[in-house]
Design a protein that fits this description.
The chain is α/β, with parallel strands linked by helices. It has helices spanning about 10-20, 55-60, 110-115, 145-155, 155-165, 170-190, 215-235, 255-260, 275-280, 295-305, 305-320, 335-345, 350-360, 365-375, 435-450, and strands at about 20, 45, 65-70, 75, 85, 90-95, 100-105, 125-130, 135-140, 200-205, 205-210, 210, 240-245, 265, 290-295, 325, 390.
Amino acid sequence: MSAAGHRGGKSLAQVLATRVAVDIGTTSLTGLQARTLDNPVPPYVAHPIYETLPLSAGESAAIGSDFQRVGPLYLRPEGDENNEFTDAYGVGWLWVDAHPAQFRHPLEKASWSDVSKHPRPALPQIMQIAEPERSLSVVADAPCPGLLDTCFALRNGWQFLDDVTGDWRIASALLDWSLEVAARSYEHMLEALPVQPDVVVYGDDLGFQGGMYLSDTDFRNFLYPRLKTLVSRIRAKTDAAICLHSCGGVKSILADLADLGVDMMNLDFYAKGMELAEVGRALPKTMVLHGPVDLIALGAAALRGERGAVAKFATDLAAADASIQAPPDNMGERHFAVDCLAGAAAIRALDPDDLKTLRDLGPERTIIDRIIAATKDFQPPAYAGDNPRVATVDSSHPPSGHADRTKQPPISAGNGRAPNTNGACTRRNENGASRKDVSARADVRRSDDEGASRSGAGDPVADDPRHPRG
């Protein structure tokens, strides 16, 4: 794990040793979507599909985060008259009920020999870089989707799963294509950053709420060796801690994921078998958990004065020991954002002695009351994401870029806008729909257009745009 990290900021080890660390608004795991703003949003976003905001270091500190973001910036996607757009990987997206969902997969009908010929996405030339005057640790956002996510997007999830069991040549070719693109994306980002980060995020949704997409054997045969290669190539470029994300019930492969050599995991603690205590027992004691306590749920409970719920969250937080608290996903609804920021304020009411008391004795009324009092009359800090520190990647002098604001590229409104996207959310929304539900609706539309139908759910991970696609 990085001991030095970002110049001028606190190292990750220092943060974890002195306080309960909080990460909000920095990556596709914790970001605040443009839809949470009342005012017009900037044309550059931190995620090309979900439109998370590139908060400045000052904004990150103001909302209660111990981390600031670095990584690629993107123009907002521009939909056509049918609310459709195509990303840099050639994947077609459709806005369904204000949610982005994949509906066209460019390699769905491709042969084995066609896979290697599929065009590689262009590498982003605009980077958000760290602000050294801020005493925040630095987290590098994922510059691309994970290997399995990419295969599902290019091929169609159901088809790729068929390939794994029925045509290993195509499955291997798709994974090899995805590995090379991912490694190239991380190398490009890390070489372009003037100062190395403390944490680098890699995300690959390996499961759904009930279990794994691949069998354990297929994961170990097809995916694990390539993940090992990718982690090694990232390690060759940085000493930063690597944070691995996966949604879903992946308990059966937790030991394999730890064996990849990552330092931190962001997991889906709402999935089957992924209770915090069970996950803790399955992982090495040195593994840092990112997001084991749901900041949105904690903030909502504290704002409502629900002592029982706050006590449960506080006890979980203390039991997690060295961990980083975060929302369970990026946020696309204003009320989720407010609850999350209130959760950060609640955590700031705790000191190391409080955590020791909670671990040794359990919930203590004075501590719980102090957490709730921290959110009384809570007013969420303002943020806009319109003033990140920007560098342009100069291919003739790749590592340096331009570090000062005076040379940042001109930003003009109207460079691209996703239509009809008010009120979108990620893992949950007001109707209780998940991203997988949105995918199913997009897949049904496509099936209707083709005169075909499928039994069961839609594309397994067709709509998981948590990780950037160009």
